[in-house]
Amino acid sequence: MTNSAFDASTFQVVEPRIRAAAVVLAAGSGSRVGAEQNKVFLPLSGRRVVSWSLNSFAQVRAVKRFIMVIREEDRRIAEETVARELGHIDVEVVVGGNTRQRSELAALRHLSRDIAGDDINVVLIHDGARPLLAPQMIRTLIHAAAEDQAAFPAMERDDIRSIRSDGTIDMSNPGRLIAAQTPQTFRARPLLAAYEQADADGFNGTDTVSCWEQYNDRPVRWVPGDPRNIKITYPGDLLDAERILLDSHLQVD
């Protein structure tokens, strides 16, 4: 994985050629956050969690399609959320699978005709449980994927350690490590091809990058992430997200 500086001066040249689709994964559950319903439909500062990132994607001119991937049992609340909070966006609701990868494949197949016709040439895969997504981050990632085919945001970390096979912690210096965020962003045709091949092979990756790397020789570029781009996993994360929205100048409207 490599990292290179983002040259904002060239972005306006690249952006008009890009026709991106934003895929927001909302097919999880609320088990760890302690909720009886899917956590992406919990309230956050007057909206449901999933609405925040879709609103951010809508502020980026290059994003032309908006996909929300759900569980069938969440269809009613998903459609209600779209009608009430996202009426200004043409959000397409797609039923996902029983794994993250199957859900991503469902979204890519939904887009496959436009991908084949080059009407969509970049796809961003985002976790709906990460509501605080700045539009400038989206633009940076689109530019990076346009140049290098694949990119994702990440935060450098010095507090991550590996676990040995016997269950003990390896406290040796791990070197330079990063914690991945989303949206993970890719050129559309090779991403769809990778997912179709993974489906044929029975390969199931841990995230979008792992599937890409299994079937592509092009390295994945990482760009500096945003500490505010937190994932709602535990109950306290909702409180942290509320605080960030109150205390920061994060522009997601």
Describe the secondary-structure layout.
Elements: H1 11-14, E1 20-26, E2 43-44, E3 47-48, H2 49-58, E4 63-70, H3 75-85, E5 91-95, H4 100-110, H5 112-116, E6 122-127, H6 135-148, E7 150-157, E8 162-163, E9 169-170, E10 177-180, E11 184-187, H7 188-201, H8 208-215, E12 221-224, H9 235-247
Parallel strand pairs: 1-4, 1-6, 4-5, 7-12
Antiparallel strand pairs: 2-3, 6-11, 7-10, 7-11, 8-9
How would you sum up this structure, described in words?
With 253 residues, the chain is α/β, with parallel strands linked by helices. A hairpin with a 5-residue loop joins strand 8 and strand 9 (169-170). The chain has a single domain (8-241), classed as Spore Coat Polysaccharide Biosynthesis Protein SpsA, Chain A, CATH 3.90.550.10. It contains nine helices and twelve strands. Helix content is 36%, strand content 21%.
